[in-house]
Design goal:
By secondary structure, the protein is of the alpha+beta class. 38% of the residues lie in helices and 26% in strands. The protein has two domains: 140 residues, Jelly Rolls, CATH 2.60.120.10; 64 residues, Arc Repressor Mutant, subunit A. A hairpin with a 2-residue loop joins strand 10 and strand 11. It starts with a strand and ends in an 8-residue tail after the last strand.
């Protein structure tokens, strides 16, 4: 894993759901520099303020050394700004999960949004998605509902590409993305499997076979 100053990110799901974020992704692609990152390699120079648009592959975004707060794939955006370092708290890290093509654009180019209504909307949609995403994760921790966290994590991994899903077992994904203990998460997953809600193979989630129940 490598340190960086994360200002915000949107995953592929967020990009797919917003015309503005999709426009922002394509605008960065058009005006940025094409780069390639291989799994495990560092790619960002310290102190650079840049906006990155992911064309292919997948990145894992961490808070601290262990907790995954996002997996960014095709269509996703990562915003890096050194100002985030001044805000305190645990550092952010990133890991390239699979070979990635991405576009890098210096942050100062975003001032051009003033003259482009669609680009400006894309920036605001990105900010709104990022804030909403972080708020949902924070509230889930505050509510302290272990089942809800496991349910959310399983639905998350179920929607990931097969390449990313093959990188970690279901239990490691749950413990990496939630505050639920391994033993409690395993108990919940065992019950869901016995109830015919999830299909597993060698510790990996194959698929969610039917809608997961709201309570446990």
């Amino acid at each position: 894993m490598n340190d960086f100053h994360l200002s915000g990110f949107s995953c592929e799901g967020g990009a797919a759901g917003s015309e503005g974020i999709h426009y922002l992704h394509n605008w960065i692609k058009k005006n940025g520099v094409t780069k390639i990152a291989e799994p495990g390699m560092p790619l960002l120079e310290s102190g650079k303020n840049v906006v990155l648009s992911i064309e292919s592959g997948a990145w894992r975004i961490f808070v601290g050394d262990k907790k995954v707060i996002g997996i960014v794939g095709s269509g996703g955006i990562v915003w890096v700004n050194s100002f985030a370092q001044q805000c305190g708290g645990p550092s952010n890290k990133y890991e390239i999960v699979s070979r990635s093509v991405y576009y890098e654009l210096p942050e100062e180019f975003i001032h051009l949004a003033v003259a482009d209504d669609l680009l400006l909307k894309g920036v605001f949609d990105f900010m709104a998605w990022n804030t909403s995403n972080i708020s949902r994760k924070w509230l889930a921790q505050c509510v302290n509902d272990g089942y809800a966290e496991v349910k959310s994590a399983l639905e998350w991994v179920n929607d990931l590409s097969e390449t990313v899903k093959a990188k970690c077992t279901a239990i490691s994904f749950v413990t990496d993305t939630t505050g639920v203990s391994r033993s409690h998460a395993l108990s919940i997953m065992k019950s869901l499997k016995q109830g015919g809600y999830i299909e597993m193979d060698g510790g990996y989630l194959v698929r969610i076979t039917r809608k997961l129940p709201e309570g446990y």
